[in-house]
Design goal:
This protein is α+β, with helices and mostly antiparallel strands. A 5-stranded antiparallel β-sheet has the order 3-2-1-4-5. A hairpin with a 2-residue loop joins strand 2 and strand 3. Helix 1 runs antiparallel to helix 4. The chain is elongated.
C-alpha cells in the first residue's frame, strides 16, 4: 500500500516516503480501517447506552437525594388532611440549570399558606409529561378558587407545611421513592454504564486489530 503523495488538507507534496503525519499541518497520514455496518452499529449501541447512563445519573441522583431528605423531614411529624384554596399562583424559571418553579398562595383553615404546585400539576390530565411554560398558562391551569386536597404539617415552616394528598402518607411515600431509586433505578443505570464500557472495549479491540492489519499490508507492499 503506497502512502499518499499529497496531503489532503494543506496540499503539501509528500514524496514517496513520509512520516505518519504531515510535517506542515499535522494531518494523520496513517491508513484507517474501513467502517463496516457492524462497526457502525456497535458505535451506535455504545453511544445509546452511554447517553442512557449519563441521563440516568443526571436524573437519578437528584431524585434520590431529594426523596431521602424529604423522608427524613416528614418522618414522625404530625399532620392531618384538609383543603387548600388557591388565591394566586407564581411561575418562575432558572436558566442555569434550567428548572421550573410553580407555587400557589392560598388559604388553609383560615390561614395563609404556600404550596409547591409541581406535584399537583403532575396529576392533571395532559400534564404528566410537561410543565407550564409561562405565568399565563399556569394561571389558566390552576385558576383562583381551585381547591386542592392536602396534608397540613403544623410543626413545619414555609411550603413544607403543605403537601398534596397522596395514596401513601408523605413520609412513607418518600421512603418508598428512596428505596425504589436505590434498589431498582440505580442498578439499571449501572447496567447501562457497564454495557457502554464493554462495548467501548470491544470497539477499541476492533480498531487495534484493523490498525495491525493495515500495518501488515503496508509492510508487505513495501517489501
Amino acid at each position: 500500500m503506497r502512502p499518499p503523495s499529497k496531503c489532503a488538507t494543506c496540499g503539501l507534496e509528500l514524496g514517496e516516503f513520509v512520516e505518519t503525519h504531515c510535517p506542515r499541518c499535522g494531518r494523520s497520514l496513517a491508513p484507517k480501517p474501513p467502517v463496516t455496518v457492524g462497526v457502525w452499529l456497535l458505535d451506535l449501541a455504545m453511544g445509546i447506552f452511554a447517553v442512557l447512563f449519563v441521563m440516568g445519573c443526571i436524573f437519578g441522583l437528584p431524585l434520590y437525594m431529594n426523596s431521602s431528605a424529604r423522608a427524613e423531614l416528614y418522618a414522625g411529624q404530625p399532620y392531618h388532611a384538609t383543603a387548600f384554596r388557591v388565591t394566586y399562583v407564581q411561575y418562575s424559571v432558572t436558566p442555569h440549570p434550567y428548572r421550573v418553579f410553580a407555587y400557589a398562595t392560598g388559604m388553609v383553615e383560615g390561614k395563609k399558606e404556600t404550596m409547591d404546585l409541581i406535584p399537583y400539576l403532575g396529576t392533571l390530565p395532559g400534564m404528566q409529561t410537561r410543565l407550564p411554560v409561562n405565568q399565563g398558562e399556569l394561571m389558566a391551569i390552576v385558576p383562583e378558587g381551585t381547591v386542592i386536597p392536602v396534608y397540613l404539617f403544623p410543626n413545619l415552616a414555609g411550603a413544607n407545611r403543605i403537601q398534596m394528598s397522596m395514596m401513601r402518607p408523605p413520609a412513607e411515600h418518600y421512603r418508598w421513592l428512596t428505596a425504589w431509586t436505590s434498589n431498582k433505578a440505580f442498578p439499571v443505570v449501572a447496567l447501562f454504564g457497564i454495557i457502554a464500557g464493554l462495548l467501548g472495549l470491544l470497539r477499541f479491540a476492533i480498531f487495534r486489530a484493523g490498525q495491525r492489519r493495515l500495518a501488515a499490508m503496508a509492510n508487505g507492499a513495501l517489501a
